[in-house]
Amino acid sequence: MGQAKRFDPAERLDRAMEAFWQNGFDASAMPALCKAMGLFPGSLYATYGDKRQLFLQAVERYTATVSADAMEMLGEGGMTAVRRYFAALIDGILDGRRRWGCLVTNTIVELAPREPEIAAMAERQLARLEASFAAAIERARAAGEIRPDADAGHAAFLVCTIQGLNVLAKTKPSRERLETIVSTALATLENPSPNRGVTP
Q1: Can you give the residue ranges of every domain in the chain?
Q2: Which of 49, 67, 103, 187 is least surrounded by CB atoms within 10 angstroms?
Q3: Residue 148 class from Cβ within 10 Å (0-12 exposed, 13-18 middle, 19+ buried)?
C-alpha cells in the first residue's frame, strides 16, 4: 500500500530532476529514485507514473525553472545580458549544479537517438534559447554594441557554444579555459576593427 500523499509533488519532482540531472536516465534506477525522492514505490508510481513518465515531467520541470531562470537574464538587455548569461553559466559549471552539465544537453546526448518524443522536447527548448539570444543580439545591434551584420546565425552559434560548454563541464575545466572559449565566441559579435585588412 502506498503512503498517504502528505508530500509536495513539485518538491519531490525537483528531487527527481536533480537525480536525473546528475546521473542520467539509464543510470537512475527506480529504487535510487525512490530514495532520492523520499517516496515508497507505490506513491511514486501513483503520482508520477513509470520511470519514463517521471523523466519527462522532470525535464519539463527543468525547462520551467532552471532554464527559464537562465533565459530570463537574456531579456534584460543586449550584450550586457549576454555576458551575464555566460558568466552565470561559468559559475554554475565551476561551483554549482551546472557541473553536471545541462539536463537538456545530457538528454540529447543520451536519449535523442532512440526517443523521438524526448528529442523533440529538447529541440523545442533549444529553439526557445536561440530565440532569446536572437532578441538580445537584435537589441545589442540596434544599440550599436556589436557588428551591424549580426543576425540569428550568431544566436545559433552561441547556443552551440553553450551546448559544448555543457558537455565540457563534466571534465572539470578551469575557469581560464571556460572564459577563453566564451571570449572567443563573443568576439564574433564585435564590431570590425577600422584597421582590419590595412597593411602597414
Answers
A1: 62-187
A2: 187
A3: exposed
Measured CA to CA in angstroms, residue 172 lies from 85, 123, 178 at distances of: 20, 26, 10
Cell numbers 554549482 label which residue? 96
Please name the residue that has the C-alpha cell 572564459: 179
Residue 38 amino acid letter: G
CA distance 56 to 107: 10
| Percent of the chain predicted with pLDDT > 70 | 93
Residue at grid coordinates 545589442: 140
pLDDT score of 199: 41
For the record, the C-alpha cell of 79 comes out as 550584450
CATH hierarchy code of domain 62-187: 1.10.357.10
> Residues 116, 121, 125, CA angle at the centre, nearest 5°?
140
Q: Which residue has the cell 539536463?
A: 103
Rounded to 5°, angle at Cα 121 from 7 and 25: 60
Q: Is 101 left (phi over 0), alpha (psi -120 to 50) or beta?
A: left
pLDDT single digits (tens) 137-164: 999 999 999 999 988 889 999 999 999 9
Output the nine-digit C-alpha cell for 72. Answer: 530570463
CA 115 to chain CA centroid, Å, is 19
CA distance 80 to 175: 20
